[in-house]
Amino acid sequence: MRIENFELCLILCVLIFMNLDLPLKNLSYVTPVYAKRLKKLGLFNVRDLLFYFPRRYDDFSAIIPIGKLKAGETSTIQGKILDVQNRKTFRRRMVLTEALIEDESGTVKAIWFNQPFLMRNLKVGQKVYLSGKVTYSEEGLQMSNPVYEIAKRYLIHTGRLVPVYHETEGISSRWLRWQIKRLLNFTNQIKDFLPYEIRKKEKLMDLSRAIKEIHFPQSISLAEDARRRFSFSELFLIQLLKLRLKKKWRLQKAYSIGFDEELIKKFTRSLPFKLTDAQRKSAWEILKDLEKTWPMNRLLEGDVGSGKTVVAGIALLQAASKGYQAALMAPTEMLARQHFFEIINLLKDFNLKIGLLTGNEARIFKKKNNSVSREKILKKNQDGDIDILIGTHALIQEKVAFKKLALAIIDEQHRFGVFQRAALQKKYESFSAVAPHLLTMTATPIPRTLALAIYGDLDISFINEMPKGRQKIITKVISPNERENTYQFIKNEVKKGRQAFVICPLIEESESLQVKSAVQEYERLSKEIFPDLRIGLLHGRLKPSEKEKRMKDFIAQKIDILVSTSVVEVGIDIPNATVMMIEGSERFGLAQLHQFRGRVGRGPYQSYCFLLTDSQAGKTNQRLKALLKINDGAKLAEKDLEIRGPGECFGRHQSGIPDLAMTGLSDISLIKKAREAAIGLIDKDQSLKNYPELLEKLKEFSRKLHLE
Ligand code: ADP
Ligand code: MG
Strand order of the sheet with strand 362-366? Predict the structure, then answer.
């Protein structure tokens, strides 16, 4: 009775004062010590706690007669306490709390270890619920360390689906359940930001109900409905944000670059191969974008080796030959350099001035390719005297200025951090009122719908086919006893004039460990395994110039076998390399393994990918098996999604997508629906002035996304 009075009072107080922003430390029972622990979980105010969702549920909903208990099962009983006492054990100096519980069908003993304070809560004659594991003892069945709850109308720890939360020291699920349950009385006050018509159409629970059901569900299916509601609303918010960004982007001005059919025809005729249909279509979409008076914001997505560079080349050519400047930025010096030579080669008939600018190197190509001083290239670029500037993030440094930048292309955009992407944006905004057209390219294979969700503010072109005649790379998982044969195989390939990569295992904890293992592997291979072959070493601790040199030597075939850490991953082309040997392959993600594999098979020779593994673990093997069967990056991505879930595949920090939405990402139809709902709403009420709660939520959501 006292408790209920207290709760009533609390409800009344809170009806007047309750505010979701109320700090948790202001709640009764949340002592400063607890407030500190909650902070560790990232929980500061009432809202945070209400939105701290359980990670799973214990199903204690079936209540079993004591007479029907079976050893080995986890069960819930309801009964009366006949006896309860603390007892010290002799040998282990432990306190046991023992209770005898009775219902109509029998009695059972319950035992708790080292929780003497339980005596304060458990009294003879009381009705209790117990949930826990049933075990055998000399005296018959017993329950050890069961969860207990004094019988009352509304159970939260037993006799139902019981939420289990991520815990931290000093904050148990039991404590969280108790606190959260108290707060649930106030959810009715929270206005649902999700518009009613959308909820109705998608048959989604309202917010207040969903909060209740996600914490204390009446059934698993209601818990799932609640989760679906939250996934939907997060995806919906993301889509709204992206759509609004897109509208905002459209308000900017850009140079309209006319489409020159003759020029493009001349270019395609000059190529030693025919463009694939997918390349044509993508190029067409990009050229159409360039004609617009607002800046393009397009993502070009295509598997490794699908030929994105040529498509970029077309765009660069179109911009540069109309008198504008264009830039191409790559994540590493090696790649920037490769692009420089490739673009020179692609555009050799067009009389353009092409520059290369990296941390270490500055070059200008005009008929001939010359090393120049940084000052010179910066000056020339500023005067508009360079048509196409290629480089690393050196391109976004302060000193770099363009006269008439109309197009910026970022290759392997996922390799640039959010910060660098933002810097680029800022830089370009600072030039003039005219924003450059922006094309980003990625080989991170993402299923189309997912791409829409993650990059919903961009237009997307997919290169979904490989150039004709690409050979299939033979992929094999190699167990330890096949290692010798594999080395022999590599020797033979080298004898035939081919080259090989050996990738060292990924060591997450530290780069220096990784470097050490690469150095060791290098020494082992050069001294013990291949003493008469030329071995090279590549890792992240080498100076850029050394890396560069090593790579050049490999390209020039002065090295037979390149031992490397994962730095080699990004798009370098070595047509003469036919073997990719990956040590500790189970430690890499599918996408990364696929990227490694894409480093070989670029030339006319049959190529091989060897996945070395000592691990027998099912899950990793499942991944490696997928790699054996599937050659298509997009299909692998779907598989990866299935095996690892979206959170691990796309990493929160990279995509900026919150957990719940991440869970929602594995539900393609939910993404579609959220996107459609967002588009529908924006069409109807662009400023969202009729949806003040939604607008407020959107602001909060966007703040949170950007903080992360
Ligand atoms: P990625 O999409 O991984 O950046 P690249 O642009 O580096 O791929 O292209 C890989 C290789 O394929 C290059 O050597 C390129 O010259 C070649 N290539 C590109 N398009 C075609 C095509 N349509 N037919 C044949 N080879 C092509
Ligand atoms: Mg590339």
Answer: 368-371, 362-366, 354-357, 388-391, 325-329, 405-410, 437-442, 297-302, 459-463
Tens of pLDDT, residue by residue over 238-265, are: 899 889 888 888 888 999 999 999 999 9
Give the pLDDT of residue 570: 59
Q: Tell me, using a 6 A CB cutoff, whether residue 331 lines ligand 1.
A: no
Ligand 1 pocket member 502 (CB < 6 A): no
* 509-514, long-range: CB < 8 A, 24+ apart: 511/540, 511/541, 512/541, 514/539, 514/540, 514/565
Q: What are the structure tokens assigned to 261, written together?
A: 């059919």
8 A C-beta contact, residue 580 and residue 596: yes
> Does the beta carbon of 309 lie inside 6 Å of ligand 1?
yes
* Cα gap 631→634, rounded to integer Å: 9
CB 180: neighbour CB atoms within 10 A? 22
Q: Is the pLDDT score of 193 beyond 50? A: yes
Residue nearest to atom 25 of ligand 1 (CA): 467
Q: Is-contact 168 37, C-beta < 8 A?
A: yes
Composition of the chain by helix, strand, coil, percent to 5: 45, 20, 35
Q: How far is the CA of 308 from the centre of ligand 1 (A)?
A: 7
Contact 518, 544 (CB under 8 A): no
DSSP secondary structure letters along 260-301: -HHHHHHHHHHSSSPPPHHHHHHHHHHHHHHTSSS--EEEEE
Burial of 214 (0-12, 13-18, 19+ CB in 10 A): buried
User: Cβ(590)–Cβ(627) under 8 Å?
Assistant: yes
- What's the pTM? 0.73
Percent of the chain scoring above 70 in pLDDT: 88
Q: Report the candidate in 671, 670, 668, 626 with the shortest Cα–Cα distance to residue 644.
A: 626
**Per-residue pLDDT for 185 more than 90?**
no
Specify the pLDDT at position 208: 93
Shortest-distance Cα residue to atom 13 of ligand 1:
307
Per-residue pLDDT at 8 exceeds 90: no
Q: Is the pLDDT higher at 514 or at 16?
A: 514
Question: What number does the ligand 1 atom closest to the CA of 274 have?
Answer: 23
Cβ proximity of 574 and 499 under 8 Å: yes
Q: Which residues contact 110 (CB under 8 A, 6 or more apart)?
A: 98, 99, 100, 101, 130, 132, 142, 143, 144, 146, 148
- Nearest CA to 250 out of 424, 443, 525, 457 is that of 457
Region of poorest pLDDT, from 57-61, 417-421, 630-634: 417-421
Q: Tell how far CA 5 is from the center of its chain.
A: 48
| pLDDT per residue as tens digits for the range 325-370 | 999 999 888 889 889 999 999 999 999 999 999 988 899 998 888 8
pLDDT bin (cut points 50, 70, 90) of residue 469 is confident
Phi/psi of residue 454, nearest 5 degrees: -75, -40
Cα Rg of the chain (Å, integer): 32
